[in-house]
Amino acid sequence: MTVACPAFRHSMGEVATSEEARQVSWEAPVPVNRFWDSFRYCVARIFLGDFTDPELRQLPIVPDSSQDQTTKVRLLLTLLQAKLATAQAASSPSQPLYETDYKRWYGLWQAVCVMQDELHLPEAEDTVRLLVNPRPDNSNVVSPHMQAEHLVKIGKYEEAEKVEGPVLAWMTFH
Questions:
Q1: Which strand ranges, in their side-by-side order, compose the sheet holding 7-9?
Q2: In Å, what is the CA distance from 169 to each residue of 47, 106, 139?
Q3: Per-residue pLDDT in tens (0 to 9) along the chain, 174 residues
Q4: DSSP calls for 50-62
Q5: How far apart are CA 145 and CA 139, in angstroms?
Q6: If you count Cβ atoms within 10 Å of the first and of the last residue's Cβ in the chain, which end, N or C, has fewer?
Q7: DSSP, residue by residue, 18-63
């Protein structure tokens, strides 16, 4: 008996198996199904990157879901917030998740921010500012770039220019 290999899409829209997609280090395979096909690659990828394969199999995501997009994004946001709350609760007050596992903290908050932005929630601005302010590594320009994009989206053009200036300078020399 032959078992069909699930298909996954890459950042360039190419469809492949999960193993093929994982051969490229910067690729995060996104399942090809009705639920995930409704998301832009970057939105799906940021969510999927915060969960292990066993965790993903346990999530209440229906692959053939015909729900509207807002409902789907709200589900992803709720799942991310629950995972973040669990991770933060496991940390001690004297050593918060931000200090003990910055990469995990950042990844979860970044995904929360993306979902908030997709839903046009006003708290997305506070979340992106949270990602920018405590950065231990100022060479990471992703957060300021995200902040500038969000500021443009909400019409704060002057502030966006100020935030994006150092990002542009960094990109010019790298």
A1: 15-17, 7-9, 30-31
A2: 29, 23, 11
A3: 333 457 777 676 666 666 666 666 667 788 999 999 999 999 999 999 999 989 999 999 999 999 999 999 999 999 999 999 999 999 888 888 988 998 999 999 999 999 999 999 999 999 988 888 766 666 677 777 778 887 888 888 898 888 788 777 777 876
A4: TS-HHHHHHS---
A5: 12
A6: N
A7: HHHHHTSTT---EE-SHHHHTS-HHHHHHHHTTS-HHHHHHS---T
149 SS3 class: helix
**Cα distances (angstroms) measured from residue 54 to each of 12, 45, 57, 94, 114:** 26, 16, 5, 30, 23
Quote the tokens at residue 30: 């996104």
Q: Which two tokens stand for residue 24?
A: 């490229």
Cβ(108)–Cβ(83) below 8 Å: yes
DSSP of 88-128? HHHSBTTB-HHHH-HHHHHHHHHHHHHHHHHTT-THHHHHH
Q: Which residues pair with 16 in a beta bridge?
A: 8
The Cα 65–Cα 67 span in angstroms is 6
Amino acid at 13: G
